[in-house]
Amino acid sequence: MNRLLLWRMLQEEVRLNSSFASRRGFWLFPLLVAGAGLLATVLAAELTTGVPYRDVLVGLHFSFLFYGLFTGGLAFFGSDFLERIFGHYALVTNLPETQPLSYQRVMGIYFCKELAFYALFTFVPLIFGALLGTSWSFIAPERMLWLLASLLPSFCAGLAAAFLVASLYRRSLYWAITGGGAMLLMLGAMLANGGPPQLVWYLDGSPPLLLAWGLALLPALVATLLVGEFHEQALPPAQGYREEYAGMLASSEWSHRWAIPAIVAKERLDLQRSRTGIKMLFSFAVPLTMLVFVNWFLDRGLPLEIEFNTIFWGVMVGFFGTMLYSWLNTMDDSEFYATLPIQVPDLVRARLVLFAAVTWWIPALFMGLIALLSGELRLLPLAIFVMAAVGLYVVSYTAWITGLRTNSSLYDATIFARFFLVSVPPMVLLTILSMALEQALPMVLVALSFSCLVLLLATQFFYGRIQHRWAGEEFD
To answer: Whole-structure pTM over 0.70, yes or no?
Structure first.
């Protein structure tokens, strides 16, 4: 039975993603991952020049940890949205409501499905690409295999951590915060003792890799035992959303230059009604809290030769804004808009305005924490400007190429390749400038300001192209 449920969940995952992205693009995505693995392996010597070997490995493991947190946040915090939007497709996770199956069993298999799906969909092609790249690299094929074998538990740990926080959130907000804090302490303990066990195993073969897998899967086991049936409490009828709309519309009139205020007001009210804001905060807060903690620990606890200042983190936090915009596209099914005299571009623009107007405080809060912990409050205004420019640039381009289907469209290889080529080069440039800040402050400030202005101009261009791109699209 368990294997059957796992297989059906995997089929469901493929069906949902390939139905939104083009089937050709979806199945080409592993080829894109293989190409990225090939390129990274071939260019490994140039990419790591002057960087201590251990620092490179720590960075790789944290990258895969954050990848697991990101995908896990979307999967486990967004499960109730999937039920709401696609409930008429009878998702497998709904079986406990009609069949003699426990939520613990189904959600435990759901975690296994997520791990198996990403292992097959990303790690397997990554292995093939990286092994092929060793033919033109200094890295031996067997060492590459050991490295990738050590990175998979790091991804699993991030996925399991997101699962645990989501399970604790189903019980209470305070449980979720406590659980997240406990995992941060565990991460700090591992860093203080040389890094995660899988990294230590890769370097000297001890401790055994099974110990790393055990620690990575432990949060998932705890989450499976704690998870239960979850129904968000409805707000009291006296709340009166219908009565609130007039006031919300009046407070949204300022947005008439960029969107239709009536849609902005409606979407803002939906954000409040569906309590999406709490899930947005958590899915954004978990990886960024880890980011804040790692930044503090690297500054205080480890004598690394490379120091990442607040400007660098502004670039990273701005890029994470894509996650917040993707949540705005999961609040409700948009099909009912088909009966109204509006078009898809109207809704896309309204959600972009909502992203800029309502969610800005979440990344700004984390930027303030990073600047405070790093002792760089003087850089905070510039860092927030960089964060805003990067965030608006990336999100506006994401809205232009994905419309209302952000999460699934990025599984389309052609769309993801375009997203990568447009978003990564500016981030690399801003990262290089941030690291040169102390060496040539006046010149770097000018370069940073000019780069951010170019990004804002590009944002305006992307925003203006939304009408042309989505005018002929249907809501259903």
So the answer is: no
